[in-house]
Specification:
Layout lengths: L7 H9 L2 H16 L2 E2 L7 H5 L7 E5 L24 H14 L10 H6 L1 E5 L4 E2 L11 H13 L6 E5 L1 H4 L12 E5 L16 H11 L13
Parallel strand pairs: 2-3, 2-5, 5-6
Antiparallel strand pairs: 1-4
């Protein structure tokens, strides 16, 4: 696992000293040694690397990484260039088109968002190939909950997009901080997108909130590759 070196390190350093993290580290190391695991080990903390704590404007929470070869690279919902856009991200693009009139791109590579301050965090940061949710309960949830809780305590205006029941369950970590905007909707998966994700207008609401608080909005348009 590549080390976190930006300002996230000061925020989450206490987690590295806790017993659960030592156990987690050993379990993850063993998984990578014995099985094919995604994302590649050097990309586990990509969400942290690409979006420093002090730069976070929007938080999107996923469950665990994509489990097919070549998809996951450490950002929830995002896939590497050349990989077919997954169904949930297709629906996110449809909502962006409806909400902001954006063109639907030919790829699902969301690094552009991360570099603008969109923190795309999976609750579980690794998964065994072809075995969804296989690393749930291993300890990652403790680590990512600590990151979410730290963002909830920030005085800067942050938008939290909580899509689906597992993401909405994280609301309790955010407290009652009046500086933030919490947006909730069903998950964008094909099973639930028509039950309230479509039409939620989270992207325009996020930009309006950020601009109202003196921040630049996010350029949500992903460019074609």
């Amino acid at each position: 696992m590549s080390a976190i070196e930006n300002d996230w390190l000061d925020v989450i350093k206490p987690e590295f000293k806790k017993p659960y993290y030592k156990d987690l580290f050993e379990k993850v190391k063993e998984e990578y040694h014995n099985y094919e695991v995604f994302p590649p080990s050097e990309e586990i903390f990509n969400a942290f690397h690409l979006t420093p704590y002090s730069k976070v404007k929007v938080v999107i929470i996923g469950q665990d990484p994509y489990f097919h070869i070549g998809q996951a690279h450490g950002l929830c919902f995002s896939v590497k260039p050349g990989v077919k856009t997954p169904p949930s991200l297709v629906n996110i693009y449809k909502e962006l088109n409806s909400d902001l009139g954006l063109k639907i791109p030919n790829n699902g590579y969301l690094v552009k968002w991360a570099e603008q301050g969109v923190f795309m965090l999976n609750a579980v940061l690794t998964v065994r190939a072809l075995n969804p949710n296989s690393h749930q309960g291993m300890g990652w949830e403790n680590f990512t909950d600590a990151a979410i809780e730290a963002l909830g305590k920030s005085d800067r205006p942050i938008v939290f997009m909580l899509w689906g029941n597992s993401a909405r369950a994280k609301k309790k970590l955010l407290g009652d901080n009046p500086n933030h905007l919490i947006l909730e909707a069903p998950h964008p998966s094909p099973l639930s997108a028509y039950h309230g994700f479509f039409g939620c207008k989270h992207f325009s609401k996020a930009n309006s909130f950020l601009e109202k608080h003196g921040e630049n909005g996010i350029d949500w348009q992903i460019d074609d590759i």
